[in-house]
Prior knowledge:
Blueprint: E1 2-3, E2 6-7, H1 26-47, H2 52-69, H3 71-84, H4 91-140, H5 143-147, H6 151-163, H7 166-193, H8 195-201, H9 205-215, H10 219-242, H11 244-249, H12 253-288, H13 291-307, H14 313-354, E3 373-381, E4 393-402, E5 407-411, H15 418-423, E6 433-438, E7 441-442, H16 448-454, E8 455-458, H17 469-473, H18 482-491, H19 495-499, H20 517-531, E9 535-539, H21 547-560, E10 565-569, E11 581-586, E12 589-594, H22 596-602, H23 605-626, H24 631-635
Parallel strand pairs: 5-10, 5-11, 8-9, 9-10
Antiparallel strand pairs: 1-2, 3-4, 3-6, 6-7, 11-12
Helix pairs in contact: 1-14, 2-4, 2-7, 3-4, 3-14, 4-6, 4-7, 6-14, 7-8, 7-14, 8-13, 8-14, 9-12, 10-12, 13-14, 18-20, 22-23
Amino acid sequence: MTIGGTDVAAPAPVSDVDVDAAPDDPKAARAQARSESKAKAAALADVLAPVKKRTLLAQFVQIFASAATVVPFIGIVELGRILLEPGPVDSGRVWLVVWLVVGGLGARAAFSFLALAITHFADLDLQAQLRTRIADKLGRLPLGWFSRTSSGAVRKSVQNDVADLHYLVAHATVEATAATLSPIFALIYCFYLDWRLGLLAVATVPLYALTYSYMARDLTTEMEKMDKGVARISATIVEFISGVAVVKTFGQTGKAHRRFVDAADEFNDDFAGYMGPMLRVQAVTTVLISAPLILLVNLGVGYWLVDNGWVQPIELVGSTLIAMVLPTALLTVSTAVHTRQQASAAALRIAALLAEPELDVPDTPQVPAGHDVRIENVHFTYPPRLGVPSGVKALDDVSVELTEGTVTALVGPSGSGKSTLATLLPRFGDPDSGAVRIGGVDVRDIAPTELYRHVGFVLQDVQLLTMSVRDNIRLGRPDASDEQVHDAARAAQIHDRIRELPEGYDTVVGDGAHFSGGEAQRVSIARALLADTPILVLDEATAFADPESEAQIQQAIGALMVGRTVLVIAHRLGSITHADNIVVLDRGRVVEQGRQDELVARGGLYASMWAAYEAGTTRQDEEIARGAVTSSEVAR
Length: 636
């Protein structure tokens, strides 16, 4: 992977890290924390490489602003000396000092403004570059990556992680430089006045540094532990909410709720066990750099120095004022360190995203000669990801032929590989071995834009964008007329529902248009029908349709399937009885294929599935007749 012109090893995707995989051994945990810290630092350095020269320039400019910061303190001391001298006040010297102070304040403001302007423009360029690179990267990733990656994770990478770099680039670098150099220049002046005043100004800082280092000794490890605790709580919340209907049905509400309570209690104990002692230490550190204590130490010891004639009162005043600004500088540096840690984590996630393997694009793309599909000796293994261990084989030596203009149905038990096989056609992923060919051409040798002009798909997980319903339907065919959009919607049995929306087809999805699962799927079907691709993949296209409209949808799709090569994944066997070929999968292998009557007569796996389907359908019809369930409940 190359970031900022530097070749680095690709980090492991953050989403693949098991939140419970942290080692129990404290030494191992610290070693892991150090390793992760190095990875974050390397990722941050690479991500910030395009603006490194400009941030260094801003820091150089800030040196002059920091040097000018000490001028007002020098002016106060010199004015005090002039005013306390016996005899008439030399107004010329007074005005000279005043103008020097004004000049110092002006120089500080000008150089600080210039330094921040440099970093802000650098930040704007960096954000534009990163978002452009991420968007370009997302455009080259296989579609299967999006099916196993949540939209929230994608949004976090594009928006939140890039935004997390803003404060570090635009503010923290310059502010940390100012917070470090301004006290140094001021302390140099204190030591110039008298070495005892210099030591007095920093009298409480060593104690603060010692206590703070004690407090932060395990900060990284403990923060990661807290993050994992929050992740466990979030997981139990999602589990409870998403499965609330199931747990209530089986009377397990208390048990499911107990998992969340246990996770929260564990987090609370860990958090309290770490933060309790740390809060006491933090209280001590706060006192050590508090204004009253600094003032007390400087004036108390300073009085003794003045009383012995070692320093002048006005010099003590100047050094005391300088000592009072040190706490602000320390807090600014602490904030900058925290910001850098946060930005490092964001940079690591960005680097992980940019390191994701891309969809291979052929150097010399080919165009299919026809619309028949041949799946030849395909093997496919799931890529490693959270919840799915590496090496799980989904397809094992699968070969299927889809003759142009025919309908092929994929059936089989849950987890048999139906959806995996179907999604290889639009290249959600590529097989480990074997080939998927369209018109005699391997799909890996077809340009993605050309491929999606030949292959359309309707999946169970419907995605509608935040735009008008009209634009959602003509997403794959932007030049379609309103009449063509309406015809596609009518064919998908969704036209009347759209007309009922506040602004009809102009209603924005998520704003005025809130579709149920079945309605959203019919909008998706309309989108696929309008795209008019010669090859169509339907993953349980009527899964959420009401029984009353399913027949019409099947009839409309059947009419529009004429002349197309269609691959259907179905759990309702009754919807694919007229398919030209039914392929039965079990554990990733083809165990049977043929027409409906042939498979039933063969008495194999499909025959047993068909018998179970008929028995279930008969039982549902009887329950509907008795009024035990409604037709909409059966559909669900």
